[in-house]
Design a protein that fits this description.
mainly alpha; 6 helices
């Protein structure tokens, strides 16, 4: 019997090459957004955070403008959210070629009118 993969381990793709448009001057000049956090990979960032002691974690939060919290899980959630907001700012997709709306033919108008 063949072993099946777990659903959470499967990856979905739409086979579309996505390009992203620059949204900041740093991106226009060739920046990748890694200067603030040192990475754009969430798993790598979370691993780095888990390696910090509480004092260093609070200092990191303050350097990002986040109020340090004594609740570890809440602070980690805030840092993760700030990281995602930063990296998603570098992933604004191109709008692509603009498509003009199709003209409605009389046959299409007749079909649509039947539902009234």
């Amino acid at each position: 019997m063949a072993r099946t993969k777990k659903i959470d381990k499967l990856k979905e793709t739409n086979a579309k090459v996505e390009t992203f448009k620059p949204t900041t001057l740093d991106q226009i000049w060739g920046g990748t957004g890694t200067s603030k956090y040192g990475t754009n990979d969430l798993a790598e960032y979370e691993t780095r955070l888990k390696g910090l002691n509480q004092t260093d974690l609070h200092a990191h939060a303050r350097s990002l403008g986040i109020m340090p919290d004594s609740n570890y899980s809440l602070l980690m959630r805030k840092l993760r959210q700030a990281f995602l907001e930063h990296t998603n700012g570098y992933k604004v997709p191109n709008s692509g070629p603009s498509q003009k709306p199709n003209k409605m033919t009389p046959a299409i108008a007749k079909v649509l009118a039947e539902g009234r």
